[in-house]
Amino acid sequence: MRAKDAARLSTIRLLLAAIKQREVDERIELDDAAVLGVIEKMIKQRRESIVQFEKGGRQDLADTEKAEVQVLSGYMPAQISDADIQKQIDSVISETGASSAKDMGKVMAALKARLAGKADMGKVSALVKGKLSG
Fold it and tell me: Distance (Å, rounded) from C-alpha 31 to C-alpha 112?
């Protein structure tokens, strides 16, 4: 507030409201993992909005959403590298004995527990699908 950074302040208020809303809806106190889930969901929503705004020719709104993604990303843990993601995928596939696309659910469940907040799960899903079908 003192820095007069209105965009950052607005984004943080949105985040706090989303966290509070989830706590009220579910009548629980969110732990760190659940808060990261809320942030991840907000980032995903913003990215989808950016695509739609750019398709609609509304660059001003897309820029606002991009700024919000930047602020929200600052509260996420550091993202792990693609090589580390591959190692985790290989590890989980060997642990679960997955051999085909039918086993994708098991693999993704295990990976979600390990990589939540540290990697884009959409990207992880695509990599797993490639490994199991190829």
Answer: 16
pLDDT tens per residue, range 57-107? 999 999 999 999 999 988 887 788 888 888 888 888 888 887 777 888 888
| Radius of gyration, CA atoms only, the chain | 18
Q: How far apart are CA 89 and CA 107, in angstroms?
A: 8
Enter the tokens of residue 82.
């693609």
Q: Report d(CA 68, CA 74) in Å as an integer.
A: 10
SS3 82: helix
> 49: helix, coil or strand?
helix
Closest listed residue to residue 107, CA positions, set 89, 121, 120, 133: 89
3-class DSSP state for residue 110? helix
Tell the burial category of 44 from Cβ atoms under 10 Å away from its Cβ (0-12, 13-18, 19+): middle
E strand or H helix that includes residue 134: none
Q: How far is CA 98 from CA 29, 65, 68, 70, in A?
A: 35, 39, 38, 36
Its pTM stands at 0.69
